[in-house]
Amino acid sequence: MPKANSKATLPANPTLKEINWYKKQINWGELPPFYHMVASSISETEGILHHGFDNAVKRVLDKRNWNIELLGGYEDDNGLIHCETPPRLALHQVFTDRGFELWAYPFAKHTQIDQYVKDNRLIEFNVWDPHSMKNLIRINQLHKFIAFFFERGDAADKALILHAHKVVHKIISFLHSEMNIVSTDGVTIKDFYQMCERDSRACNDEVDVARLMLGENINKD
Fold first, then answer.
1. CA distance 197 to 191
2. 98 touches 62 (CB < 8 A)
3. What is residue 126's three-state secondary structure?
4. Confidence band, pLDDT 50/70/90 cuts, at residue 1
């Protein structure tokens, strides 16, 4: 049986591969199923800017679907789209029963739209389909994984959560560079982590009070 490596360490700013390696070193050479599921989802999210398969981010960035007439753009003789002002989007970060998600909403003048629209002169996309374009990214079951960390997680689990936060921040920064992002709101991964941290501390305090009432000695930490 593989032996846990107590000397394994994480670098200061680890990659996902390095976090997975560290997790194996402290977990008898294996990746627990729950950890593996979340890590795989983060890996897929991290790769959406590079992999060739279709996804919501690429659909939003597809200039062929931009309403260039409304945006003041044009198509040149080589079929290339030129548009100095990209479509506006509002980004919303949310935790659902499926995990962490990043949603996008287009605009009709000054109003956010959350419905299917096609060939409308007020929308900056030729087609906006929420089913395939609204949910830009999802990290499956991240909310449950964060809660699990505060119950019995380890340093690798914490590093994975921090890496997920960095991946989402990188994608949002990329969208800011490619689209006209009007606003970004909602509950970030950091927000949710800190909320769980406060709940965990409150729970621990209640346990310590109960122990004091039973006459047990507890340390000040």
1. 10
2. no
3. coil
4. very low
SS (H, E, C) 50-69: CCCCCCHHHHHHCHHHECHH
Number of Cβ within 10 Å of residue 65's Cβ equals: 18
User: In sequence order, what are the residues at sequence separation of 6 or more whose Cβ sits closer than 8 angstroms to the Cβ of residue 216?
Assistant: none
Is residue 203 over pLDDT 60? no
Contact predicate 106/97, CB 8 Å: no
The pTM of this model reads: 0.86
| pLDDT tens readout for residues 140-169 | 999 999 999 999 999 999 999 999 999 999
CA 64 to chain centre: 27
Q: Would you call 112 helix, strand, or coil by DSSP?
A: strand
Query: H helices within the chain, ranges in order?
Result: 16-25, 33-46, 56-61, 68-71, 130-133, 142-152, 155-178, 189-213
